[in-house]
Amino acid sequence: MHSKVLIIGSGPAGYTAAIYAARAMLSPTLVQGLQPGGQLTITTDVENYPGYGDVIQGPWLMEQMETQAKNVGTNIINDMIKSVDFENRPFTAVSENGDTYTADSIIISTGAQARWLGLDSEQKFQGYGVSACATCDGFFFKDREVVVVGGGNSAVEEALFLTSFASKVHLVHRRDTLRAEKILQDRLLNHAKINCIWNNQLDEIYGEDSPPNVQGVKLKSTLDGSITDLKVDGVFIAIGHDPATQIFKGKVEMDDEGYIITKPDSTVTSVEGVYAAGDVKDKTFRQAVTAAGMGCMAALEAEKYISGLE
What we know:
By secondary structure, the protein is of the alpha/beta class. It has helices at residues 12-23, 58-71, 120-124, 134-137, 153-162, 182-189, 288-309, and strands at residues 2-8, 29-31, 45-46, 56-57, 75-77, 81-85, 91-95, 100-108, 112-114, 130-131, 145-149, 168-172, 194-197, 200-209, 212-221, 227-230, 234-237, 241-243, 274-276.
């Protein structure tokens, strides 16, 4: 199956790239991947995506993007790409189903996933008081107490951001020192709203089942194993993100964390004709709207590249 543009991944970046590529008469093919719709499919209330006066649901927003991409002419395939060849032209991608796709250009929009602790209770309350994005969900915890789990830059930044909304922010770290940059540590340790709980790890999240909502957490000491109960309304897991770039290792240039490197103000990767958009290359903002913007950029850059070939 040959396409002028092959889009790998189906979050806001992938669907937006598909919409723009299809409107440019490039007849794109989009392979959705393991989680069609990306991280927004596990997000409930969305208040910060432009254009909606009322609260919308993450899964609904992705359904609308998918429908729009289909309606303008995108060939959407429910499969997952397992290997790619960027050395030969046209580019080649092979799926889990054994299908081979060739393309003149490729847009990588496979996104990133938040790291979770793996607790059953964590999964139970995801989207109902448990989040991995303070920027996305902090507003919902105005004048409430929350807990942030982690000890790196992400955790400290999330905790500081949440002080704009929450009445109290508890930072839980399994050690007695932070890994975050010194300037961030100083801001955190001197903030009146932040309480640091050292040498503890999250053991359990509890709350009501119907409707689901968090009421507190149980913390386990890493020193003596004792359990402490902490009443909070929200839990933010901030132990990092992992970009979904395994199959692209050695194919395009990446940084030490596995994020794809692109040229400044561009989605162009180290391989001409291959573009990266969304959380797969963005570890700073990680928002649906910025991912969508990069998807637009990637499609426009791919269109220009294909015009040059023709």
